[in-house]
Amino acid sequence: MNLPEQLTSVTERPRSMWEEATTTQKAGVGGGAAALIIAIVVAVFAMGGGEDDWDPAILYANLDYTEAAEITTRLAALGIPHKLTDDASTIVVPDDQVRTLRLTLASEGYPKSGRMGYEIFDDSQLAMTDFLQTVNLRRALQGELEKTLMDIDGVKSARVHLVMPEPSLFTEEQNPVTASVALTLTSGFSLKPKQIIAITNLVSASVEGLDVEQVVIVDSEGNMLSEEQDPLAKAASRQFQQQQQVERVLEKKVQTLLDEVIGKNRSKVRINVALDFSQKNTQESVVDPGASQVVLSEETNESQSAEQGSEENAVRNYEVNRTIRNIIGTVGGVAKITMALTVDATKVTHDAETGRFEESERPQEEINQLAALAQQAVGFDETRGDQLTVFALRFDKSQEIQAREQAATEERKEFWTNIAINVAKVLGILAALITLRFIIQAIGRGVGVEEEIEVLGEVAGDVEDEEFERPETPHDIILSRVQQMVRERPEDAAKLIRTMLVEEGG
Predict the structure, then answer these.
(1) At a CB cut-off of 8 Å and minimum separation 6, what does 188 contact?
(2) pTM for this one?
(3) Predicted confidence (pLDDT) per residue in 1-37, tens digit
């Protein structure tokens, strides 16, 4: 039996068994198949996800434990999947149900804790005292400020405490309104001074009677963020900050200049600036004696005598030209500059013959030129008392030299590695082309063999249909044996023919 007949028998056997089966047996087989399909579908869905297969979104945050328990119980009763964070203060639900759940729970009066603002007055009581009204107003202001501060970029959470004393009949005895703000910042984030000033002004402008100086801001680590309110301390802090800023600017000017001249990590600059913050008011009067005279006033006296006759005396007052200058000295001017300059006493040079990096002594003339260059960069003035100290020291460059040699070695290694990779790619492409050529030839030979087998099978069939007898010759005997082999053992016949073709081709 050949291969097509075997396949036909395999497919015909189940068909005949299905046709011979009874109705009950067919129903049982169909039910079993349906149950198997349902089980496979359920298993696929169970493997694909489950109750955790939803996009989370925050429903409520900063809840107390009691209300968090009430809301989770209500969600469980509604059949809504939900989760609690580790601190049990935030509830997470599926993203597509957040808005619907907030509306549903709001109709039931949730949330009652968390950041409460003016919503606290929604449940007003008839018999509420003035004290409770004042406390609720303070709580509402604190809650509204906390929600506003949490909208600032970098602020994770905020706590605001307001102290609003009772009004006093005497102004001198009135205690001021104060506020303290505790901020929890996101990891790796710090507020800029402008942002801290903005938060201070925001809190001060939100509470009636609260002065900017009465707002204190701290972070979660207890660090003071708001500025010192003492005028003297504030002035000293600003003067110190201004001095540091001037020093950083001058150091950057000198360091960048030297880095461009002798390279990076070849010099270090440190500058100390003394600023004059004293206010000076100088009045200067300059008299110009050579200017034209202007008569300011004149007085004439006439006298007569028998001896001298009449005599006239005149007194004239002249205005003297003069210039009055009122000079106000600048605050924060540079009074003195002290600079320490450290220059590497050696420099690294590249030897073209050996290809290595070597150290050589830096000439003293070059060091003096670098010092003069640094003086010109900062506006050095000896009459002002400025001082410059130059140190020529040997910098440790062992790691740098080793790194350069290693980089050169890695560069050479990378060069040869790239060449080897490119050669390997070319050889791989050639090997793939040769292999593909042999595969195509083998496929062609296989197709030819199959065609020869089909032809031999057809010839064998035609010979069987012939009813006349012919005399058997040696050629007929060989042909009959080949036909018999093709009918009984087609696979061996195909191997034999393939071997013969290979031998002829070789």
Answers:
(1) none
(2) 0.41
(3) 444 454 455 455 556 666 666 666 565 555 555 555 5
Total Cβ atoms within 10 A of residue 407:
10
Residues contacting residue 9 through CB under 8 Å, at least 6 positions apart: 1
The first and second tokens of residue 148, run together, are 């506003």
Cα 355 to chain centroid distance, Å, stands at 42
How many whole angstroms separate alpha carbon 197 and alpha carbon 469?
Answer: 120
Tokens read off for 449: 């063999």
Distance CA 500, CA 506 (A): 10
What is the DSSP code (8-state) at residue 351? -
What is the distance between the alpha carbons of residues 373 and 385, in angstroms, rounded to a whole number? 18
Question: pLDDT tens across 359-412, in order?
Answer: 788 889 999 999 999 999 998 888 888 999 999 888 876 777 777 778 878 888
Q: List all residues 6 or more positions away from 36 whose beta carbon is below 8 Å from its beta carbon.
A: none
223 phi/psi in degrees, rounded to 5? -80, 135
CA-wise closest residue to 60 among 50, 76, 72:
72
Beta strand segments in 164-308, E: 177-185, 210-219, 267-276, 281-287, 294-305
Half-sphere CA count of 410, side-chain side, radius 13 A: 6
Residues in the chain: 506
Residue 170: both structure tokens together: 């005497």
Question: CA-CA distances (angstroms) from residue 329 to 69, 282, 283, 326, 385?
Answer: 69, 8, 11, 10, 19
142 or 235, higher pLDDT: 142
Structure tokens, 179: 């506020």
Give the whole-angstrom CA distance, residue 184 versus residue 204: 20
| Per-residue DSSP letter, 385 | T
Q: How far is CA 390 from CA 150, 305, 334, 343, in A?
A: 52, 88, 22, 7
